[in-house]
User: What shape does this take?
Amino acid sequence: MSDETDTSDDVIELSASRPGDGRDTRKLLAYWSGLQDGRTVPKRADIDPRRIEGLLSDTFILERIAPGLARFRVAGANLAELMGMDVRGMPVSSFINPEGREAFAGALARLFEEPATVQLDLVSASGFGQPKLTGRMLLLPLRSDLGDVSRAIGCLVADGRPGRVPRRFDVARMRVAPVDGGPVEVRRPEPAPRPVPVKRGPPHLRLVTSN
Assistant: This one.
């Protein structure tokens, strides 16, 4: 989807909001549901940032670029704070630890293809200069100006200060709900095991003799 044919993403300004002011993913879900108005998926052009003012720093717009892959077109200031840089143009999976990205990609594919809503409970483990963080991510499908479901609005709300960045998360719980009322899937993905470093002993000297 070229920006020349669909430039509406560029007109939303996701300015900073006051910390703790309405930072609840349910507010975005309720707003999106109100935009459906008998349709399964609202249009991207229907989004009015003034209606979700308290969530703007946590809110973003995604563009689908391949099955199971989407990038940030617009992103609030709190996402840049978590990553330590501007996330526009980056894949949304950048916030997920590598071990959980396969399951996350499957949820993204369903978000656009079925379409479906996706809700994630997230955990970022503590480390040097990094307090433990919990968070919630919500992904909601949108139609582009061309009518295809290739956009999504979402938010990522993390509790606490990020500390040393970047911060990435494990998916503790995933809920995928088809917008047509089909069966809801709730599961706790099992991340792929992290590789265990191989401990090597001290090198051995071998005596080689020749006659």
Remarks:
- Residues 1-8, 10-21 have pLDDT under 50 and may be disordered.
